[in-house]
Automatic annotation (TrEMBL):
Enzyme class: oxidoreductase
Catalytic activity as recorded in UniProt: shikimate + NADP(+) = 3-dehydroshikimate + NADPH + H(+)
Residues annotated as the enzyme's active site: K66 (proton acceptor)
Gene that this polypeptide is encoded by: aroE
Organism, scientific name: Guptibacillus hwajinpoensis
Positions of the Shikimate dehydrogenase substrate binding N-terminal domain: 7-89
Name of the protein: Shikimate dehydrogenase (NADP(+))
GO annotation, biological process: amino acid biosynthetic process; aromatic amino acid family biosynthetic process; chorismate biosynthetic process; shikimate metabolic process
UniProt: shikimate binding residues: S15, M16, S17, T62, N87, D102, Y222, Q250
Binding site for NADP(+): G128, A129, G130, G131, A132, N152, R153, T154, I155, E156, K157, L220, G243
UniProt-listed InterPro entries: Aminoacid_DH-like_N_sf (IPR046346), NAD(P)-bd_dom_sf (IPR036291), SDH_C (IPR041121), Shikimate_DH (IPR011342), Shikimate_DH-bd_N (IPR013708), Shikimate_DH_fam (IPR022893), Shikm_DH/Glu-tRNA_Rdtase (IPR006151)
Family: Belongs to the shikimate dehydrogenase family.
CDD domains assigned to the protein according to its UniProt record, in alphabetical order: NAD_bind_Shikimate_DH (cd01065)
Known pathway: Metabolic intermediate biosynthesis; chorismate biosynthesis; chorismate from D-erythrose 4-phosphate and phosphoenolpyruvate: step 4/7
Molecular function, one GO term: NADP binding
Length: 280
């Protein structure tokens, strides 16, 4: 019998992680299985204990447990501590250790668009200051960037995240209105919010009136595959990228952490796109 891996969150019925991982297990000839577990916040502590009893070898963590799970683990890696969230747990020496593959997954997807060598020359704007923004901003700054600015509806949250990242790069925090008027000064603009996701498909996180041609617009949303914001950006001459690559990369990094085997990322991507009913 193979090893058991999983996902915990609430809800989890919409997640494509099980089909992505299980298809890859089958393609690689593994008898392992990935199972989604719907745990309410009240069930989280008992759920982690159940994972140990079931001898689960590793699992992903999604909303709303990415922060709450941290004190329930035996150890948490430094990058995850800085991000303030765990999205992947692996077993080592009988211990459950928390890590975060969201930020590195995003970074790998971004580099595939802009090229490995150019990030350190870029001025980046991150829209949002929540969990996804923390993962993206911390990982980009740790990698090295010319400057990174956080724009958020609540400026205090943007300032707090800017402070966390400032040890690695030049950072700033601004309002959304200021971001819109100074948009031409940024090379890459990243939406980490849920604005534009179903059912609010016509909403956009930031007006693009002052965007310069050739700006990279990156949206972490992957359903729909092309948000209204990306559509508008493409019409204005932007290079656009949706959240499929980040989703695949963060999953692939978790897969490697658990199995010590590198999955076929293109195959995982095709699996996700097939489920979404479209192509990038």
């Amino acid at each position: 019998m193979g090893k058991l891996y999983g996902l915990i969150g609430h809800p989890v019925g919409h997640s494509m992680s099980p089909i992505m991982h299980n298809c890859e297990f089958r393609e690689l000839g593994f008898s392992d299985h990935y199972q989604a577990f719907d745990l309410s916040p009240e069930q989280l502590e008992d759920g982690v204990e159940a994972m140990k009893m079931l001898d689960v070898q590793g699992f992903n963590v999604t909303i709303p447990h990415k922060v709450a799970i941290m004190p329930l683990l035996d150890e948490v890696e430094q990058e995850a501590l800085e991000i303030g969230a765990v999205n992947t747990v692996y077993k080592s020496g009988g211990k459950f250790i928390g890590t975060n593959t969201d930020g590195r997954g995003y970074l790998m997807s971004l580099l595939s668009v802009i090229g490995e060598s150019s990030l350190q020359e870029k001025s980046i704007l991150v829209i949002g200051a929540g969990g996804a923004a923390r993962a993206v901003a911390v990982s980009i700054c740790r990698s090295g960037v010319a400057s990174l600015t956080i724009a958020n509806r609540t400026i205090e949250k943007a300032e707090e995240l800017s402070s966390v990242c400032s040890k690695y790069a030049k950072t700033d925090a601004i309002s959304l209105s200021e971001a819109e008027t100074t948009l031409s000064s940024f090379d890459i603009v990243i939406n980490t919010t849920s604005i534009g996701m179903s059912p609010h498909l016509n909403h956009t996180p930031l007006k693009l009136d002052h965007m310069k041609t050739g700006t990279v617009l990156s949206d972490l949303i992957y359903n729909p595959l092309e948000t209204q914001w990306l559509k508008e950006g493409k019409q204005r001459g932007a290079v656009v990228d949706n959240g499929v690559s980040m989703f695949v990369e963060q999953g692939a990094l978790a897969f490697e952490k658990w199995t010590d085997v590198a999955p076929n990322r293109q195959r995982m991507r095709r699996t996700v796109l097939k489920e979404l009913g479209g192509q990038k």
